[in-house]
Write a structure and sequence with these properties.
Structural class: alpha+beta
Strand order of the largest sheet: 9-10-8-7-11-12-18-17
Shape: globular
Oligomer: single chain
Radius of gyration: 33 Å
Number of strands: 19
């Protein structure tokens, strides 16, 4: 019986290649106890399986990244051509490889468009699809993590919504947002920033050649937070030189599409014309917005009484500081809307074949004059900007 067990042990040792001379070759300690060796072999086998599992996980992750990359579309320096008016027709992941010309840093743009219910969801890092920063921005560009939503079924509202500093205007199909207004007004701070009161007149137009907002050749620059954004036409997204019907290049916050400059006018392809024009003559005084009503203390209870008293009667208009000079386009207030002067309405849009959309123009208001629909709340800016 003992002889039987001895033969079995010898057979096992033979099968695993054990001998006093080669024990270290398989990672075991040199020992005279075969069972101890077998125990250590079991542990090594467990570690081997664990390592194989890790390898499989790494390979799986790598394959997924490759798959995601393969499923994405490279839009580096791409000229857009698609004219589908619904944001749902652009569902895909888009990437680009570009360079910040100031820092010589290479960056990757990422934009994902998806649909959830009745919303298109744009997730972007706000890096454009072309080399940028030819004008040496004051603030360096930084990657963002923005999520913006627009309705898949835009409707014209009963009343237009005015543009404001509180809301971004649109998202373009390269993942960069449109923010037409500046935060600079004549007589406020240094004239470049700090004018957050939308009732304040003489707001500078960043697109005027008379103003220096340090935009690059794409009519864009950075906000103090590092977000790259447009103040006018994203010229690299469509053919702006040749008479070719323009594609959809983005979507406004109200869901309506934004087209390039060209449209088919009964067989003639030409640029859409704005219905805004410069006012004539010298700039006139503009009265600051008046809250109306009587002078009151709003129910404030004071511990000490000063030597000032409320004025009597109704509030009177207070004139804002006037920059003087002629209407030359330096300020948004230099322009006036004249119905049917051009092709487009007061929001810089028109309806073609039953589809309403905004158009890029060579003159004020450049892309949008207002919202024809209701902007989605996801475009509301955060205070940090």
């Amino acid at each position: 019986m003992k002889l039987k067990y001895i033969y079995m042990i010898m057979l096992v040792l033979f099968l695993i290649g054990f001998s006093p001379n080669n024990s270290s070759a398989i990672g075991l300690n040199n020992t005279s106890n075969p069972m101890s060796s077998l125990s250590e072999l079991k542990i090594d086998s467990h570690n081997l399986y664990a390592n194989n599992s890790t390898v499989r996980k790494v390979e799986s992750s790598s394959k997924q990244r490759i798959k995601n990359r393969q499923n994405s579309k490279d839009i580096t320096d791409v000229i857009l051509k698609k004219r589908k008016p619904s944001c749902a027709d652009y569902v895909k992941t888009y990437t680009s490889s570009v360079k910040d010309l100031k820092s010589n840093q290479e960056l990757e743009g990422n934009l994902s468009v998806s649909v959830s219910g009745d919303k298109c969801i744009f997730t972007t890092n706000a890096i454009p699809n072309y080399d940028f920063n030819s004008s040496q921005f004051v603030t360096d560009v930084s990657e963002q993590n923005l999520t913006l939503e627009v309705t898949t079924n835009p409707q014209q509202a009963s009343k237009n919504t005015e543009l404001s500093l509180a809301t971004d205007n649109a998202i373009f199909l390269n993942g960069v947002k449109l923010d037409l207004l500046s935060a600079g007004c004549y007589g406020v701070g240094d004239g470049k920033i700090g004018c957050n009161d939308m009732g304040q007149p003489w707001r500078f137009d960043p697109m005027s050649s008379l103003n220096d907002f340090q935009t690059d050749s794409h009519n864009a620059h950075t906000q103090p937070s590092g977000i790259y954004h447009y103040h006018g036409s994203p010229v690299a997204l469509f053919d702006s030189e040749n008479a070719i019907v323009s594609p959809v290049i983005g979507f406004a916050a109200d869901g309506f599409p934004i087209f390039g400059s060209y449209f088919d006018d009964n067989g003639t392809v030409r640029k859409a014309k704005s219905s805004y024009q410069l006012k004539e003559g010298d700039r006139q005084e503009i009265k600051c917005e008046n809250p109306g009503g009587i002078y009151d203390d709003n129910g404030t209870v004071r511990k000490a009484k000063s030597s000032y008293q409320l004025k009597e009667g109704d509030r009177q208009e207070i004139k804002c500081e006037n920059p003087g000079g002629i209407y030359d386009g330096s300020y948004r207030d230099d322009y006036e809307y004249v119905a049917e002067l051009g092709d487009l309405d007061e929001c810089n849009g028109m309806t073609i074949n039953g589809v309403y959309g905004y158009f890029v123009t060579d003159s004020y208001p450049w892309v949008m004059g207002c919202f024809k629909g209701t902007p989605d709340s996801s475009f509301n800016k955060q205070k940090a900007e």
